[in-house]
Design a protein that fits this description.
Strand order of the largest sheet: 4-3-5-2-8-11
Largest sheet: 6 strands, mixed
Number of strands: 11
Distance between the termini: 38 Å
Radius of gyration: 20 Å
Number of helices: 11
Structural class: alpha/beta
Order of helices and strands: HHHHHEHEHEHEHEEEHEEEEH
Shape: globular
Number of domains: 1
Low-confidence stretches: none
Length: 308
């Protein structure tokens, strides 16, 4: 994991300037952030920069062949609104107090979860849907577990440390993906800060794995797709329950999330079954509100070799 001592003086200054800039935005009144800055940012991304427009259009056409061009244009415009909100909402997290997190974020079914959630380590599968960075803050609103935000190291040391700082709360800890297994084993018995661990994985990102004849392909949004299955491997190996965490937008910058159990840690399942359950629920969530998913990601880099 990158540490502040890994930065040179220029990078440290850049990190503090970036943090200070986002802090200045975070402390602005709600209406300024989400009714003035968000539409302004939308205009820049959509009309001025045409941010990844070709990738977005290609992904939408391949995923929804049954929709008309007008319907796809509507989803595209709504996506850019969502992208602007994600950026402003992420900045907003730089200054989140217990009171503010309850204003912007709510767990729908937490009373039920407190009764049913086992007192053991769990895995929570998220997606790039809605303001997903809020997923790391559910334990800040309801501190039952220590939330571990598993992430890929970024190329930019400044941005990597920025997100580390952003995701660190009294109830959440960012953990680099390549260190996650060692971290889990080290804390498996005692937990973290006396709490059981909730390993949060954003499982819809493009997996950095080689494709070969043994690769398992999932039917997802009318396309053959490879998925990251690290959550399933951990669940099967250590008998950890797995939850899917759909997110719902309820207002500008305001979201709700719920947990849905997809594996109890005990059921006998076939290989790829847990990931398949995640994929099916993810697709349902995207079809329900397609503009909230990150269509600008190159999700379908891998293609099946027709000779396989």
């Amino acid at each position: 994991m990158i540490k502040i001592t890994d930065l040179n003086i220029g990078q440290r200054i850049a990190l503090e300037l970036l943090w200070g800039f986002t802090w200045c935005i975070a402390v602005l009144p709600y209406w300024v952030k989400f009714y003035l800055l968000e539409p302004l940012l939308y205009g820049i991304l959509y009309h001025l920069l045409h941010y990844r427009r070709r990738v977005i259009e290609e992904n939408l056409r391949a995923s929804f062949p049954e929709k008309s061009e007008e319907e796809l244009r509507t989803i595209k415009r709504d996506f850019y609104h969502n992208l602007a909100e994600v950026i402003i909402g992420t900045f907003n997290m730089v200054h989140l107090t217990d009171k503010k997190i309850r204003r912007y974020f709510n767990m729908r079914n937490f009373e039920q979860l407190k009764r049913e959630m086992p007192d053991e380590h769990i895995i929570v599968l998220f997606a790039h849907h809605g303001l997903w960075e809020l997923g790391a803050f559910w334990t800040m609103a309801e501190p039952t577990h220590e939330s571990l935000g598993i992430y890929h190291e970024l190329r930019s040391k400044v941005l990597d440390l920025f997100y580390q700082r952003l995701r660190t709360t009294p109830y959440s800890t960012p953990v680099q993906k390549k260190e996650s297994m060692r971290f889990l084993l080290h804390h498996f018995k005692e937990g973290v800060r006396g709490r059981k661990m909730a390993m949060g994985l954003i499982a819809d990102q493009h997996p950095n794995i080689p494709v070969n004849a043994d690769t398992h392909w999932f039917d997802f949004l009318n396309q053959e797709t490879v998925f990251f299955d690290g959550g399933e491997q951990l669940a099967m190996r250590y008998h950890m329950p797995v939850y899917f965490a759909p997110m719902f937008r309820v207002g500008r910058g305001r979201y709700e999330m719920e947990f849905e159990l997809i594996y109890d840690g005990k059921e006998q399942v076939e290989k790829h079954e847990i990931t398949e359950r995640y994929v099916r629920r993810l697709e349902q969530m995207i079809r329900r509100d397609p503009a909230l998913w990150m269509w600008s990601h190159r999700r379908w880099k891998h293609k099946r070799n027709v000779e396989e």
